[in-house]
Amino acid sequence: MPEEVYARRRPVRSPLAPTMLIGIPSIDNVHEELLWQLDCLISDADTPVNSEPFTEILSRLGLAITKHFRDEEKIFRALPMPTELAKSHVQAHSDILQ
To answer: What average pLDDT does the segment 84-98 reach?
Structure first.
């Protein structure tokens, strides 16, 4: 089961880099969770990257990231956020997904 592989070795949570913080706790918390999940996946060197558990976890992480980006961009549109800052952040999302 992928969760068993995923749960085998969990790294210590590191604080987010200041560039990842946007000042909205719900978004900052999701950033922290997503990066931690990625760290967990990367830290388990015993799981082959071409294995079913690895690809399933990576796929779920990709879906979670995509959903988060959509949710975050929706929040940006509702806030009085400077246009250039919003564009820059949305571009960073596009860069990550490529």
So the answer is: 87
Per the CB < 8 A criterion, the answer to whether 73 and 43 are in contact is no
pLDDT given for residue 9 in this prediction:
52
Let me know: does 54 contact 5? Beta carbons within 8 Å.
Answer: yes
What's the number of CA atoms in the CB half-sphere (13 Å) around residue 25? Answer: 0
Give, in degrees to the nearest 5, the angle at Cα 18 between 13 and 22.
100
Which pTM value belongs to this model? 0.68
Q: How far is CA 77 from CA 13, 23, 72, 85, 88, in A?
A: 30, 16, 9, 12, 13
pLDDT classification of 3: cutoffs 50, 70, 90: low
* Helix 52-78, helix 25-43: angle, nearest 10: 160
